[in-house]
Design goal:
single chain; 89 residues; alpha+beta; Alpha-Beta Plaits; two-stranded antiparallel ribbon; globular; transport; iron ion binding
């Protein structure tokens, strides 16, 4: 996949704008809710785990939070540039 934000760390953590976004691959079950909500940010890899796309910066940050909230296993962790939790709180 050549469309990843960080090919060495496909599920993050990656920096987008003033946020750090990370998908916990141990928690991710490949439900794909995140992709339905934030298709510019997330995609499933060949292991059916969410990875972060290089178009993440084009996604509205509220949409990314909605995608994290939509994850049935809360596998998406977002922190701000001060290390404060954006989601989950």
């Amino acid at each position: 996949m050549d469309n990843l934000k960080d090919p060495a760390n496909p599920s993050g953590p990656v920096i987008s704008k003033n946020w750090k976004i990370h998908v916990d691959r141990d928690l991710c079950i490949g439900a794909a809710t995140c992709i339905a909500i934030a298709p510019k940010t997330f995609l499933l890899d060949s292991d059916a785990k969410a990875v972060i796309l290089n178009t993440v910066d084009d996604e509205d940050q509220n949409t990314i939070v909605d995608a994290a909230k939509g994850c049935p296993v809360a596998a998406i962790i977002i922190t701000d540039d001060k290390g404060e939790m954006v989601f989950p709180k």
